[in-house]
Amino acid sequence: MKEAARNQVAAPGLSGGLGRSILALAVPALGALIAEPLFLLADSAIIGHLGINELAGAGLGTTVLQTVVGLMVFLAYSTTPTVARAIGAGNTARAMAAGRDGIWLAVGLGLVLAVVGFFGAPMLAGAMGAQGQVLGFAVDYIKYSTFGIPAMLLVLAATGVLRGMQDTKTPLYVAGYGFAANIVLNFILVYPLGMSVAGAALGTSIAQWGMALIYLWMLVPRIRKAGQPLAPDVRGVLGTGRVGSWLMLRTLSLRLALLATVWVATGAGALTLAAHQLVFTIFTFMAFALDALAIAAQALIGKELGAGNAPRTNLLTKTMCRWGVYFGLVTGAVLAVIAPFIGALFSTDDAVRQATMVGVWVLAAAQPVCGLVFVLDGVLIGAGDARYLAIAGMINLLAYLPMLYAVTLFQHTGSSAILWIWVAFGLGFMLARAVTLSWRVRNDRWMRLGA
Question: What InterPro entries does UniProt report for this protein, alphabetically (predicted)?
Fold first, then answer.
């Protein structure tokens, strides 16, 4: 009772420095989040001067790579709350053990995926529709990228460990060094050494291994200092994998929703597909900022729950939800203003510009809902509520698919198609996610206090 009373008294005082705490984690996290897209942009810029076939092949290869790494993001999302809980409970040894086990799981999965990717590259590229020279370049890109997959996954897990320790600055610095090294390596391997597309993939793999080694250099001494062996605990690895499997199912439901949306846009014609791609690119860019808030939520919520502080967790949740909605209102207003002009940055076709404008206006209206969804997602990941997130994800997907099907029934094209596709995705799907996530935090049942 006395402890609860102290927590109740302490909770209001949190608001004074809460904004600084959120920003201290969210701003560096935003910089680290854009690192992976920058790696792919660097590859595209360097490969683009080789020729159309090379660029097309690398594009298919990066699509495969992004899909694999995207599904493995649970390595960061499952490690962050576990480490944060232990830190909040004052148990550094347990935090380092969880981090170690997450890293071992990442390396194991990475080795398996690397072998499958190397020998399955021709089948994967063929399944994407590649033929002729494009097929050859896609296979090269996938094969030489597989050398870096264990490092990429190790980086994900290590990043999760540091986020759980309330450190998002170090991942930003490491990502910056990796990006700089990637550009230099790719240029040397592609041009002076004449390795073409394979050189760009190999350069990225080497840069990823450099980042992985930096993380190991930092974390191994901390694990030893905490009195933990470097060898994995099988139960710990299996526990991380069990939580990760639920988070992977959650991610899979999101990927399926995106793929279904692209399928409907493709069926509506090339103009609709082109405009959808532009609107989705803007949505992805906005998502980086919102995801930075979600990462801050993961780390802060996990720490407060580990400390057993329910009042602070409640205050933090409410504050971050407000932040998400407010940020969505601001970004929505900006998008609404620039919508008539943004299409000109990407296309000279008037019809594509018009359709893009319509889609961006719908996206602008959806931004406050998106802000709430991203923050609540981070809150529940931080709470380790992976099972609910997975089940809710599948429910949301089942609710969304009929909306998309309704769009196809009316055979919309051009601006009309973009309007209804983005009403279905930006408003319908995101609103379904907002409802299921808000329902979960309506009371304190989602909170599990303690390490």
Answer: DinF-like (IPR044644), MATE_fam (IPR002528), MdtK-like (IPR048279)
Backbone CA torsion sign across 333, 336, 341, 345: positive
Q: Classify each residue of 119-139 as buried b or exposed e, where b means 16 or more C-beta atoms within 10 Å of its C-beta.
A: ebbeebbeeeebeeebbbbbb
Q: Residue 441's closest CA among 395, 385, 394?
A: 385
Among the ranges 23-32, 133-142, 252-261, 361-370, which has the highest mean pLDDT value? Answer: 361-370
Rounded Cα–Cα distance for residues 137 and 141 (Å): 6
How do the domains of the chain map onto residue ranges?
Answer: 17-232, 244-451
DSSP 345: G
Select from 240, 2, 278, 303 the least CA-distant residue to 98: 240
Helices and strands of the chain, counted as H and E runs = 16, 0
User: Interior CA angle at 341 toward 338 and 345, to 5°?
Assistant: 115
3-class state of residue 73 by DSSP: coil
Q: What is the pLDDT of residues 337-353, one digit of tens each?
A: 988 888 777 667 788 88
Cα-only R_g, the chain: 22
Span of 9-18, 56-65, 117-126, 151-160 with lowest mean pLDDT? 9-18
**Cα–Cα distances in Å, from 329 out to 20, 57, 318?**
21, 39, 17
pLDDT (mean) for 315-324: 90
Q: Distance between CA 197 and CA 59 in Å, rounded?
A: 10
Q: What angle, 0 to 180 degrees and rounded to 10, lies between the N-to-C axes of helices 52-71 and 196-225?
A: 20
Q: How confident is the model at residue 5 (pLDDT cuts 50, 70, 90)?
A: very low
Buried b (16+ CB within 10 A) or exposed e, 404-423: beebeeeebebbbbbbbbbb
**pLDDT average, residue stretch 439-443:** 90
Instruction: With 0.85 as the threshold, say if the pTM is over it.
Output: no
CB-based contact 381:389 (threshold 8 Å): yes
Q: What whole-number distance in Å separates Cα of residue 189 and Cα of residue 322? A: 48
Decide if 159 contacts 178 (C-beta within 8 A): no
* 3-state SS class at 61: helix
Distance CA 121, CA 149 (A): 14
The candidate with the shortest Cα–Cα distance to 61, out of 73, 50, 51, 69, is 69
DSSP-assigned letters across all residues of 144-182: HHHTTHHHHHHHHHHHHHHHHTT--HHHHHHHHHHHHHH
Burial (Cβ within 10 Å: 0-12, 13-18, ≥19) of residue 87: buried
